[in-house]
Amino acid sequence: MHTVAPVAAARPVAGGLVYTLRVLILIHGVTLLVAASMAGRALTYDSEFVLSVDQAAAEPHVMVGMVAHLVGLVQLIAAVLYWRPGRGAGWPALASLGLFLLGIAQHFVLGIGLNVHVPNGVLLFGLILVLLVWSWSPRAAARR
């Protein structure tokens, strides 16, 4: 007769890590949304219908972007803690790193022009949306 050893139930990732990551991703998403809403006020057309940036109106957009960078850095740290000691999935840490680097790149690509800044911003929104949906799903609490 064979006896089968009971399979140990997989323990979920610590609730504090999951909840912290969820909240940070949510705050990061909100700061990106606020920054994008402020960007529209900074865009103007001159008399020849050439799109330009009003620097005074762009200042709040830049400041909220800086807050988004700070939140993104803290999110990256939380995602790494979720992954390594928490034994959660590793891809959120990689996605958080990508978000952080894309966010930093936003400051430098504006000098190139809006034709790079705007698509990069759309990419930021897509990535944060994927992380946001994942973080509030039951799979976020599962160990790998």
UniProtKB/TrEMBL annotation:
It comes from the Bacteria. The keyword Transmembrane applies. This is Succinate-acetate transporter protein. The chain crosses the membrane at residues 21-43, 63-83, 90-110, 116-136. Keywords: Membrane, Transmembrane, Transmembrane helix. It comes from Nonomuraea soli.
